[in-house]
Here is the input.
Amino acid sequence: MPDTVTNELLYEVLKQVQADVALIKKTVTDHTRLLVRMREDDLRLESMQVETQLRLDRIETRLGLPEQ
Here is the structure.
């Protein structure tokens, strides 16, 4: 088996590396989009929680209940 590295062999290896890097970039982009959507969902839930807490505070104030 010859131990020589030809330009053609090097080119084929580099093409495969380039394809692998492109796949990794796509995967990272997909994960980033997913994380953004998850964070948006978290923010929506936090907003709903704050609104609910504010309503509860107003109800307690109207009823004259002491804060705990």
About this structure: The first helix runs from residue 7 to 63. The mean pLDDT is 94. The two ends are 81 Å apart (CA to CA).
